[in-house]
Amino acid sequence: MTKDTQYWYNRTIEHLVLTGRSNRTADTYAREIRHLGHYFKRPLDQLKEEDLRKFMLFRRNECKLSGSSMQILHCGLKALYWDVMRIKLPLLEVVKVKKEKRLPVVLHRDEVKAILNHVSTPQHKTYLRTVYSCGLRLSEALNLTVNDINGKLQLLHVRDAKGAKDRFLPLPMKTYRCLQNYWLLHRNPRLIFPALGRGRINGSTASKPMSVSTVQGGLGRALKSAGLAGRGIRMHTLRHSYATHLLESGVNIKAVQGFLGHSNLQTTMVYLHLTNWGQEDAFKKINSMMEEL
Hints:
Elements: H1 3-18, H2 23-40, H3 49-62, H4 67-84, H5 91-94, H6 109-117, H7 122-134, H8 138-142, E1 149-150, E2 155-161, E3 165-170, H9 173-186, H10 212-226, H11 235-248, H12 253-260, H13 265-269, H14 279-291
Antiparallel strand pairs: 1-2, 2-3
Helix pairs in contact: 1-2, 1-4, 2-4, 6-10, 7-9, 7-11
């Protein structure tokens, strides 16, 4: 990456963070800036509208970016040129990126159990159990602290989540006991999932949580061992599965919305498409009603 590209990449990251994006989201939106600099190899503030048109077509047609990835590209370029450079390129206003509406991958409960049974280390087993049983995002689980766990009330406090919001979640007793037992292995005064370091001996003194690559690697190995690799399962799949399984168990959709931290009920309602919950009962009631005609 050239110094020019690095400069604008950093400026865009700073802008996104200052306007409320998480560090991870900011990096996701800004990553196309690196591709842009590599593609043209000249100062980004000298690029013209036609240059951006050429780059966007290249990423779509040659690199085969999906609709969601093209949307990330579009947001990243708007942040750079509109907000950071203050250059209002009309192209970025007229371009419309169609967002793909795909249903998320969801696991059967037996498959979740199989994944947990094939995790090789206490840190990954506890982490994956916590993500699934509380419906957490990857970063939410990584950043949990000792003060976020309330075993007496069986509550989990998720702080500064997506949209800078806090929320309280039901903490299953079995998950609480797992968290207790895992914490006793490292006894970090603040973090639940500290970076253990080489030899896994630095847990008690670590100031940062495990890395994203560490937990993703643990999930990947568990999927391979359980025979579930190659199905597009990601960490977020556990969260999707949690929501779907709650609805299947009869939990009110408004409660599920609150547990997931969704601002809009429409976001939560996608999980209704992934379950047959209530359909059989509805069929019986409709059949009975129509018999009376």
